[in-house]
Fold these 3 entries.
Entry 1:
Amino acid sequence: MRKHMAVLAAGSLVLALGLAGCASEGGSGEAENGKTLKVWWWENDDSALAQSWNKAIDIFEEEHPGVEVQFELKTYEQMQQSGQLILDSNDAPDVLEYLKGNATAGVVSKAGLLTDLTDVAAERGWAVDNTAQDVGLYENGTMGSGQRYGVTNYGEYVGMWFNQDMLAAQGAQVPETLDELEAVMQKFVDAGITPLALGSADYPGPHLLYALALAHMDVDSLAAYQKFDGEPDWAAWQKAATTFADWVDKGYISTDSTGIPAQDSGNAFAAGKYPLFYSGTWWAGPFASDIADFEWDQFLFPGNDLHPGSGGNLWVVPSKAKNKELAYDFIEITQRPEVQNELGNLGGVPVAAEEGGVSEPVGAVVTARFNELLSGDGGTLAWYPDWPVPGLNDVFIAQTSDLVQGNVEPAQVASNIQAAYDAGKPQG
């Protein structure tokens, strides 16, 4: 799930990662003749990712004058639903954005469809020895350790975007606890305003449910859920579903959010229709560009030490790629300081920008907060709810949609999630 303005489609996917290394020409197949480099991603053209990655393409073309870059815009849904078939095709690109997680990159790495980049990273001196890069490591399809099949050059986390002007009008302060957050939302309900923008047909619903579950987890129960290190705390999910349903009953979440995608809910917040929107840092750049009528900011989910987030989605090189050396060159360029700094100044979250290189306020805020989460000083990154096993994304969307509609009891939500989780987790 992302975090990713995933549904937006258009833009680019490589952000800076601060890896050392110099571009090299050549490779196999067409790469020896310097003809083409096929690049795919799904990010919105206006996003920080797309703009910084387009800068990387410009640099690549300058340094590879005999090479034509053939870019194709895909969608998040295409890669969710057809990624394995695409990678197994003889028409696979040379380098593409791919979804991190057991259910996505884990599946295709285990199937032998991705190039093992472990030796490439070592030979080229890539600086991938940090926890943000754990999303590129897979062992028998399980993320977090093993061989390197992908590289990320940005980070992301989910927080609460808020309309400062609307909060001020209600005399509300930034909440520091869950009770205070509910008190703020109640002020808006009393004023006839639905407080929380939600796209329950897409990732915002599952992200919110996950945040409510994380309120009842610690690092051990998180490891049990994400890494199969023990038995998950399913009671935490039932408590989360109970709170979610309660918020619908109290009017904090509109029953009309059923069928609303992430893009529409984010647009509604940007238009000033809702004071709160729980979603990821991938919105920072678009909000900076699109919101002119009110002041806005972000806070982490109040009272939680665990927060959805991780290193970003991956640059991967398909096993069937024809121009692998050129793909490696492109990945290196996206990791350079000029691309990393560009990403941060556009509101993205670079993982290795130069010190002082991010000067724009929104980029500086989300970059500093991500670094705090990465180090553990501001909490802990808890990955995403659908990562452990294939198929969980659809289950979460169905369950949160049913909660909004009032079609399911909280206990059944937890049971349905557990059933899907148990059916998909590694055996033995």
Entry 2:
Amino acid sequence: MATDYDAPRKTEEDLSEDSLQELKSGRTEKPAAAVEEDENDLAAGYELPGADLSGEELLVQVVPPHPDEFTCSSCFLVHHRSQIAREQNGHFYCTECEG
């Protein structure tokens, strides 16, 4: 961009008046209406693939814990007895939860 060094320079006052006028002119223009979309409405229209499991019947064989296993009272996972970190009031806690 070319600069005209012979043109009169604007003072701070002139610059503030120019910017004040720009702000006033911006107020008179009507702002565009912002469209707000509800996130819940967007999510309701989106269906995950394979999400409808209402017609499915799941068959899982539940195996009781072996004598050398315990259920952690914190994370409720079944671990080997070698993973016991502490026992408190008959409840066992694994090394992962206590670590």
Entry 3:
Amino acid sequence: MKNIDFKDIFGAKTTFLSLQHLLAMYAGAIVVPLIVSSSLNFTTAQTLYLVSADIVISGIATFLQLYRGKFIGIGLPVVMACSFTAIGPMIKVGSQYGLSTMFGSILAAGVIIMLLAPIFAKLSHLFPPLVTGTIVTLIGATLIPVAINNLAGGQGSADFGNIDNLVLGLITFLIILFLYRYTKGFLQSISILIGLVAGMIIAIFMGKMDMQPILEASWFQLPMPFAIAAPSFNLSAIISLTIVGIISMIEVTGIDYALAGMYDKDIDEADLRRSYFSVGIGYMLAGIFNTSPQTAFSQNVGVVQMSGQKRKSIFINLIILMLICGLLPKIGAIATAVPAPVLGGAMIFLFGNVLSYGISVLGAQDLSDNRNQLMIGAAITIGLGVSIVPDAFAQLPEWLSWLTSSGIVAGAVTVVLLNAFFHGVKK
């Protein structure tokens, strides 16, 4: 943080650059609390609190990664927000044991993650470029269905696949495409933001912009400790949320290495340990303030790759915007109102850039070695298989099901084990 120009943080250009990061991640960040609250029959007040508090704590968790201290923070813009992996376990624990146990388990998982952090960090030698390149490629590939589902109107929507949705998403895509092709410098770097805003304006004329969330949102919401329930603890529930935490650590590892490559930075054991400590603290804050646990968001890696803008001031501005959106839900609701097809059109670029970056890392490896080809092929096949046909693994025992909870996790575990098998475990 020492080299940051604080005058630049609130500059217009910095704000525009951080806005496209906010719009890229905001909708995904609030989906988790909305699903959890509706499944557990939260009151309207509890739901509004959960959504707002989630954004605030996610902003703090992002700062804990961006800040590079003695014990916390990797010093890279690892954007943290609500983990989709947590949805099932939270709903199960909440319905079976109650909300106090659900939030208590998240708190306890945070403590366990901090204890595991030094152990996980010592495994950094298991992540050579071939492994990290495969994981980053998988991150991009497994997000493709998210982009296409949004392009079609959002999974489960009544008008899914409607031609109007596809046209709106493709118009957004074309706007970004032409801006990126025919502009340079700052305009090119905010092409995603301009495309999103233009898509929203077009959506208004097409009757696709829902203004109701903005009208219904409150003006101010302050996160409070144990606002919904005081913590209680159950061993089985703690184990369930700790597995979610381990998955978050694996996902964060992939993002750490992806960003490190973009910033030309080497990651060592101490960097990973501080990053994992930050994950644990984020989980503890989520338990204390009764919100959802966080993981690293891949879409923001795509924004970094596409915009080429890497200044830390952009991400400090983003954190401030996240806090504002959480503390002032009326403002945050504007980002919520971005139509799914508009997001889908932008996501084609964002997720495609993550995918292409992973492929570029793999392209620099020795692919003439058949063992490396087998490792990459098997890991991507398993990772995509878990994402595309999740029902194939529905009958796995519960203690093993965490491996197939995410295509990224399944593929990451596969490539790490295969690399150890073919090339040995070298410190």
